[in-house]
């Protein structure tokens, strides 16, 4: 708002100066982000297995049509949807509840906030190794050891190789990982809720849970939709834990769209098709984001999860 | 603080009830704290064990602390080299991105010029671009430019991909800065650069501190671009190094754990010191909204 009128600033801003100030940021972004992303779109309509680019034949949308017939694509989309399920049904609700508790807390907020953020700041490559220790089938596998201690040997499964299991064990870490991040986002939103609403309800005898349902959730709608979009994008573009925990295996069972595209690009050297898979994932993310945005704005009731 | 103290004087009964109400709230918070910290503590303990000790009982404490695991990780698994590389890349790319984003944000926050809205939308478009679609083009393109497998090349790319978010954040902050100081500087004869360096940058310090910690965490932990754009020990970063650890250590899991601790400790320390800037940034954002 305050930026709409600035007669004074205009006095010292020369066109050349403006250009020179914009150049480093806009230039680097154009060169190393925008331009490569456009190249990726170009690659995805070529049949290209390495070699000189100008000899790669143009195949139009063939790469995208091939994806329809590729069973691994369906498996990969399934895993991205598993990630989405965990992010929306587990990650965000947990984060919102913890953030809510923090916002009502009088002592220890700084401590909790620090501790909750730790999984977010740890390098994902390190976290992935940790999850391999947790799910390992070796004698030191943490999860199995815990199950044995509680006499739950029956629940032991081949966590990182079983069909129907590995898809979830590689999807879960991403959901767990970012909870601290969403706690901070939600906390910032919760701070904006007028305190009078809570005080009035407390006088009426509402407990914490009722306050959460009737005051917090309706007020947090906008922030929650924003968080849903971030979680959606993380799920549809997710690949890092499957890649580092199982390399998308066994037999591509835990592959996501992006980890599969990385497999095509680096192991199979099918660069055209691999780029098409990555592009598809990118477009899918944009379309889904637009849908959530539209749906979220239209619905009258508070977003349910 | 003041507010709650006066409340305590006015209606002590309600306040006591509230204090007791707080206790059950700590239970889930403490449970989640354990879930967040336990893995960390486990890795640290494991990194000081011998392999047989780990295999016998993964939750037991070691008989004697086996510090040699760290020597093995640091020297033989080359984590020391990766560590220095990561520090360099983090430092260079943080300085670069702050420079690139603050110059752009200054212009977008303070000046009117043709195509301003187009340039703004053009930068924001970067929010939509996932790093995964940049990999093949960048792998080819950086080789052409001669910055493939170089620390500086990777640092430039880390800062370039962070320009949209950092510019967005800084512009929003700079627009809240009152113009009086700027006007005073101009009356004193400052030019654009003078205003930028002497007025805008110092006043933007809270936002810059927040962005610094976020970028440091990003650059320290980034994996996939580093994997694709580096090829040798000389330029690999810690996250790539750690993914190669298991190849170095067959059946020496404590050595792997030691390598993991090496990647973890710096971020924990940095975050412990800089956490208040994250909170400051978020609080500033909340007040604005």
Features:
heterodimer; A: 305 residues; globular; disordered N terminus; disordered C terminus; B: 289 residues; mainly alpha; MetI-like fold
**Mean pLDDT score of chain A, rounded?**
88
The major beta sheet of chain B can be summarized as: none
N to C succession of SSEs of chain B: HHHHHHHHHHHHHH
CATH architecture of the largest domain in chain B: Orthogonal Bundle
Question: What fold name goes in the CATH topology slot of chain A?
Answer: MetI-like fold
Please give the share of residues in helix of chain B. Answer: over 70%
First-last Cα distance of chain A: 35 Å
Task: Report the major sheet of chain A.
Answer: none
Mean pLDDT of chain B: 87
Biggest contact: A-B, 95 and 104 residues
What is the radius of gyration of chain A? Answer: 24 Å
Number of domains of chain A: 1
Notes on the structure:
The complex is a heterodimer of chains A (305) and B (289). Chain A has helices spanning 7-10, 15-43, 62-69, 71-104, 109-121, 124-135, 142-149, 166-169, 172-177, 179-191, 195-203, 208-219, 221-236, 240-246, 257-267, 271-298. With 305 residues, chain A is mainly alpha-helical. Chain A has a single domain (63-298), classed as MetI-like (MetI-like fold), CATH 1.10.3720.10. In chain A, helix 4 packs antiparallel against helix 13 (221-236), helix 6 (124-135) crosses helix 14 (240-246) and helix 13 packs antiparallel against helix 16. The longest helix of chain A has 34 residues, at 71-104. Mean pLDDT of chain A is 88; it is low at 1-7 and 300-305. Chain B folds into 2 domains: 2-46, no CATH class; 72-288, MetI-like fold (Orthogonal Bundle). Chain B is globular, with a radius of gyration of 24 Å. At the A-B interface, helix 1, helix 2, helix 4, helix 5 and helix 6 of A face helix 2, helix 5, helix 6, helix 7 and helix 8 of B.
């Amino acid at each position: 708002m305050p930026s709409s009128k600035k007669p004074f600033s205009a006095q010292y801003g020369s066109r050349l100066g403006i250009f020179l100030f914009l150049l480093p940021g806009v230039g680097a972004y154009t060169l190393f982000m925008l331009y490569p992303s456009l190249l990726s779109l170009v690659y995805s309509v070529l049949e290209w297995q390495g070699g000189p680019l100008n000899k790669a034949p143009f195949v139009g949308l063939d790469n995208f049509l091939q994806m329809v017939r590729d069973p691994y694509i369906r498996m990969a989309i399934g895993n991205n949807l598993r990630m989405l399920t965990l992010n929306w049904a587990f990650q965000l609700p947990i984060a919102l509840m913890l953030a809510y508790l923090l916002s009502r807390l009088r002592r220890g907020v700084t401590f909790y906030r620090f501790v909750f953020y730790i999984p977010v700041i740890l390098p994902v490559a390190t976290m992935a190794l940790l999850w391999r220790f947790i799910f390992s089938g070796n004698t030191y596998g943490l999860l199995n050891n815990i199950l044995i201690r509680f006499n739950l040997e029956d629940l032991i499964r081949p966590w990182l190789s079983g069909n129907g299991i590995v898809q979830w064990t590689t999807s879960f870490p991403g959901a767990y990982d970012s909870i601290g991040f969403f706690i901070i986002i939600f906390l910032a939103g919760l701070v904006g809720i007028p305190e009078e609403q809570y005080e009035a309800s407390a006088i009426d005898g509402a407990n914490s849970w009722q306050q959460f349902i009737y005051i917090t959730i309706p007020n947090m709608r906008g922030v929650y939709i924003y968080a849903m979009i971030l979680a959606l994008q993380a799920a549809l573009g997710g690949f890092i834990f499957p890649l580092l925990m199982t390399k998308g295996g066994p037999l591509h069972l835990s592959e996501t769209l992006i980890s599969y595209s990385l497999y095509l690009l680096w192991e199979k050297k099918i660069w055209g098709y691999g780029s098409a898979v990555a592009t598809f994932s990118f477009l899918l993310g944009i379309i889904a984001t637009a849908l959530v945005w539209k749906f979220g704005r239209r619905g009258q009731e508070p977003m349910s999860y | 603080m003041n507010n709650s103290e006066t409340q305590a004087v006015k209606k002590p009964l309600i306040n006591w009830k509230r204090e007791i109400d707080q206790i059950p709230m700590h239970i889930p918070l403490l449970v989640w704290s354990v879930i967040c910290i336990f893995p960390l503590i486990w890795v640290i303990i494991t990194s000081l064990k011998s392999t047989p000790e780990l295999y016998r009982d993964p939750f037991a404490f070691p008989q004697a602390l086996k510090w040699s695991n760290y020597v093995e990780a640091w020297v033989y698994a080359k984590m020391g080299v990766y560590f220095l590389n990561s520090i360099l890349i983090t430092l260079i790319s943080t300085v670069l991105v702050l420079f690139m984003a603050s110059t752009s944000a200054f212009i977008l926050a303070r000046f009117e010029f043709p195509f301003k809205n187009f340039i703004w939308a053009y930068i924001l478009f970067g929010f939509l671009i996932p790093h995964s679609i940049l990999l093949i083009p960048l792998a080819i393109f950086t080789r052409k430019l001669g910055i493939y497998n170089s620390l500086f090349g990777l640092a430039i790319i880390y800062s370039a991909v962070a320009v949209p978010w950092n510019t967005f954040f800084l512009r929003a902050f700079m627009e809240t800065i009152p113009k009086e100081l700027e006007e005073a500087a101009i009356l004193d004869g400052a030019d654009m650069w003078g205003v930028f360096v002497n007025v805008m940058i110092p006043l933007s310090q809270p936002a810059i501190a927040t962005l610094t910690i976020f970028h440091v965490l990003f650059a320290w932990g980034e994996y996939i671009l580093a994997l694709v754009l580096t090829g040798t020990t000389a330029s690999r970063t810690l996250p790539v190094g750690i993914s190669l650890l298991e190849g170095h250590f067959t059946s020496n899991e404590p050595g792997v754990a030691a390598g993991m601790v090496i990647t973890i400790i710096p971020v924990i320390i940095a975050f412990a010191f800089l956490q208040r800037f994250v909170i400051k940034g978020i609080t500033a954002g909340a007040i604005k909204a």
